[in-house]
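Cross-posting from the modeling subforum.

Setting up a comparison between two proteins and wanted a second pair of eyes on the formatting. Protein 1 (sequence, then structure tokens):
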Amino acid sequence: MSLDAIDAVNWSAIPNPTWHRCDDPERVAHALRLLTVSTTANETGDAAALLAGSGFICGHAAMVFPAAYAATPILLNLVEHGQRPRIKDAALGLLSNALNYFPTAGYNRVDTPYGTDVPLCCAIARYIRGRRSALLAQDFTGPPELSAGIRADSAAVSSGER
């Protein structure tokens, strides 16, 4: 399922804000494939490190790239349906980082089905809020404001307020 979702994205149409080959969105697709099929701790770690150091996020610079928007639903699928706990943990960590990092100037907005020119962080957060039950089941510990929002939204839905 996740491999089909990865293949369905036109990664070459996503901008690369740094123009470095290592930040090419196609590398994000490659790393997502590696993460999806990883069977050992080393394979999972290598795939997560590739995502954390290339066109998804840049950990040492605390940057999030436009490809993170396209990768978010794939990572959420891995959280919900991943075959191994370490894959789920890696996906959760990457999603948390994407919310905590800063977009590159001039590349901080994306087009979504619900609007154009949406702030990147808001677009990613909307995907995450849409999958709140899966994240709560995995004990998502993203940014406190988002974690609290997910828990509050879930409580409101459970009580019939939403």
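Protein 2 (same layout):
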Amino acid sequence: MDMLLTIVVAKVAGTDEIVGGYNPLSWDNSKIGALMKTNDSFIFSLKNGNIQNSILSRVINSNEALYCYNSNDQYIYGPEFGDCEFIMKSDVSDFTQDKRCRCDARYRTCYEKRIRTTIKKFSIYDYELFKIIKKTHSKLYNSIVSTSGQQKIEKDNQEMAENPNLNTTASSILKEKQK
């Protein structure tokens, strides 16, 4: 998968918690697993339906902000932010089936703060990956396309190419990122 400007949002199984992260770079699986450098990524958690308990954690170690696994490992690994500060992992190729996802910094800290109070591994109840699309016209529009599967990606890309007015504005997400 080669996607630029993405946001992953995941519901932690058995809780009211949502965790996620923003990646301004491409998840490029054509290379051997590689660290990716950026100052612009962040991770977050939304807890128990209470916005006051939410955490936004910006990158502080830009050299190790993200890790992209090669295509041979992508049946086990999803996105990884920092040194396991948010990682989606499954030994059975399904993040909902085994408790292998985690949000813990074992050796280094790449983000400002932890987004969960526990280092216990967890399963994902459900997740979405959103791609932010920048459009150039007389004004700059930012849009999101849900990318839950490769066929949907191809269909959405084709529909957007045929009708650019189908896009949904995502300026609120980008405004939060720019704070």
